[in-house]
Amino acid sequence: MKAASISDYRGLARRRLPKFLFEYVDGGSFDEVTLRRNETDLRSIVLRQRVLRDVSQIDLSLDLFGQHWSLPVALAPIGLAGMLARRGEVQAARAAQAKGVPFTLSTVSVCSIEEVRAGVTLPFWFQLYMIRDRGFMRDLLQRARDAGCTALVFTVDMPVPGSRYRDYRSGLAGASGVRGDMRRVFQAMQRPAWALDVGLLGAPHHLGNVAPVLGGQTGLEDFFRWMRQNFDPSVAWRDLEWVRSEWKGSLILKGVLGADDARQAAAIGADGLIVSNHGGRQLDGAVSTASALPRIVDAVGGLTKILADGGVRSGLDVVRLIALGASAVLLGRAWAYGLAARGEAGVSHVLDLIEAEMRVAMALTGTASLAAISRDILET
């Protein structure tokens, strides 16, 4: 099948990935109410078609966090992305660099900070959680600085991992030992192209950034055990003052859904925040990004830069979130589907699709620049 949309790439990813990996990328927490709400609420925003406007020269570029972007999108951090395609984070970073947009490397990536830096010529962003071991955090921040990372995306909505039922049903989580390994091996055998490209030729299969503290324990169950044991539920706003003191580059807080929390983020000197519910993977039943965004923009839009993610499956969705007040939008599952289906070429095509769809949406709403996109193009 030739992919013409991000939904097509989702279908291709389902066909190529072993079930436990596809369910990991595609799923949310509990009954996935918030996961669905992100998409349906965003789709329900009605764009106002306007005519006889000069849209012959559409400009999608912007300057943000000291960088020039060709599109108002960035690739969000995705854990285990290196299992979706051979050395997947490197491939995705190359696609983002070629398109002129930021790539964000997850703390729990397969490829290390150093491997990704060696695979590209320009700096990227690094994502970090609050971890109990502050010494390890300090080491990760130093590695990110040494790699020239220009922004730290600090995830604040994960003091504990959410309960993701799909991961248990598929055998990714909760199936330890030989039985769990054999279940995943059986699923991999059903996907021979992936098994050869990633399973056999894509080694090493460990978390490159976390490997020093895991030692020789590099199985999937070791990864989930490490997450449960090392995420810090005692994290508070005072801890972000420590992060701010350790990181001198741009600091972007990811996972803000309320206006009060947004004001706190601005008060500690965050350069930006990402309105996000973790793609529906944390608190199920939480408000959608599209619903939360306007209130946050009204509260702190003049104090810090505001980005958003969640439910984005087209360039029209990007335009909708910018109209609600976001300066830029992070893509998550969209680029993961592209990577799983076609590697670097898939990520590149997803970004091309986003650009083409944005140009159509902007032309038909009479907006020739990002600055012209506002709530005025939305039907109330």
Briefly note the CATH topology name: TIM Barrel
Tell me, rounded to a whole number, the average pLDDT. Answer: 93
Most strands sheet: 8 strands, parallel
CATH class placement: Alpha Beta
User: How many angstroms does the end-to-end distance come to?
Assistant: 38 Å
CATH architecture name:
Alpha-Beta Barrel
Query: Which percent range fits the helix content?
Result: 40-55%
Q: Helix- and strand-based class?
A: alpha/beta
State the helix count.
16
- Contiguous low-pLDDT stretches (5 residues minimum) are none
CATH superfamily: Aldolase class I
Please state how the strands of the largest beta sheet are arranged side by side. 3-10-9-8-7-6-5-4
Report the strand count. 10
User: Could you say which overall geometry the principal axes of the C-alpha atoms support?
Assistant: globular
Tally of distinct domains? 1
Radius of gyration: 20 Å
Query: Element order, helices and strands?
Result: HHHEEEHEHEHEHHHHHHEHEHEHEH
- Beta-strand proportion: 5-15%
